[in-house]
């Protein structure tokens, strides 16, 4: 068993760390306030190969492994979780979904642009009445021979406004239950495809989240992903890998807050000494470090399972469940260590605390992760 990173992994991590410090940190508070994220930064992340990290270079990707993906996600998330969620959705939901299950034509047409960051992708599963219960899809895709007609509403869609390519899950045959669900590739601008206003959120405010409306959208049959009825399996398989990305995002949010709290505790004085010399604060730091290390091991293990070609459904669910809990709890502690300064934007920890919450909600809530894990445990 070898816990050390390779030289290549260290280089990749350092490149992401450098980018986060020099490009993401300036303006992160302003972007959070204004709920914006400039196209220029997305373009730069594409140039660094962050938009198609695990994609085969023949489709424009970086050809890296899942460990590299996790390292990049952690570094970006320490500074700006709005940037990292764009990276995560594009990489593990959209690019992975197309590369693993798309046809060669779909890969050439869409994946090559998504993996380079020339275009951005969105993954559209959730609906007003189908969140955790994703089988209750109300969006319909009626088979019309050489095309499908799609009607319905998707909500909470990350990259909803700025994406070019949308992977949309819809019900084709209700009588077949989840075996009657399909996944489709839609393009922005298709007639009948409307994008609603941006959500005003607690955290990851730089990331755009929208409701999407489909009114008789005509989608050619060649835009269906996989065999007829493969859509639900497609969504579950894709989300399983996505959870590794969100677990790494949670890890980054927690470790970013920890690093800020440690530094602050060595500078801030109270009762004639740096506050890290008060045992109550020192023990908080000890707990934070231990919990974050435990989360890191689960996240790395999930990525390693994926790299080995093993089943990683349980590993990714455990990593997301635990890392998101650590992110929520330890960002609160980071705010506490900062005292009053923790409560204002300038010190960054309040933003990390707000950003942490979403990691317990999207790509399957913590309760849903426990369903996945408990099923696995009981099945043996
Ligand atoms: C900022 C943001 C970005 C998002 N991005 C995307 C995206 O890009 N694409 C996309 O498709 N979706 C996206 N989502 C949607 C997200 O995945 C859902 O919000 C999430 O799956 C929960 O669904 P819900 O909101 O309908 O909650 P519900 O499913 O209504 O759940 C409400 C509560 O009930 C609990 N619950 C539900 N069922 C059970 C059960 N069987 N046992 C125990 N507890 C249960 C849940 O855990 C939760 O606590 C995003 C959401 C947000 C907020």
TrEMBL record:
PROSITE patterns: ACYL_COA_DH_1, ACYL_COA_DH_2. Keywords: FAD, Flavoprotein, Oxidoreductase. The keyword Calcium does not apply. GO terms for molecular function: acyl-CoA dehydrogenase activity; flavin adenine dinucleotide binding. The keyword Flavoprotein applies. Its cofactor is FAD. CDD domains: SCAD_SBCAD. Residues 122-217 form the Acyl-CoA oxidase/dehydrogenase middle domain. InterPro entries: Acyl-CoA_DH_CS, Acyl-CoA_Oxase/DH_mid-dom, Acyl-CoA_Oxase/DH_mid-dom_sf, AcylCo_DH-like_C, AcylCo_DH/oxidase_C, AcylCoA_DH/ox_N, AcylCoA_DH/ox_N_sf, AcylCoA_DH/oxidase_NM_dom_sf. It holds the Pfam family Acyl-CoA_dh_N. Residues 231-377 form the Acyl-CoA dehydrogenase/oxidase C-terminal domain. Residues 6-118 form the Acyl-CoA dehydrogenase/oxidase N-terminal domain. Its EC number is 1.3.8.10. Signal peptide: none annotated. It is an enzyme of class 1 (oxidoreductase). Gene3D superfamilies: Acyl-CoA dehydrogenase/oxidase, N-terminal domain (1.10.540.10), Butyryl-CoA Dehydrogenase, subunit A, domain 2 (2.40.110.10), Butyryl-CoA Dehydrogenase, subunit A, domain 3 (1.20.140.10). Belongs to the acyl-CoA dehydrogenase family. This is Cyclohex-1-ene-1-carbonyl-CoA dehydrogenase. It comes from Winogradskyella ouciana.
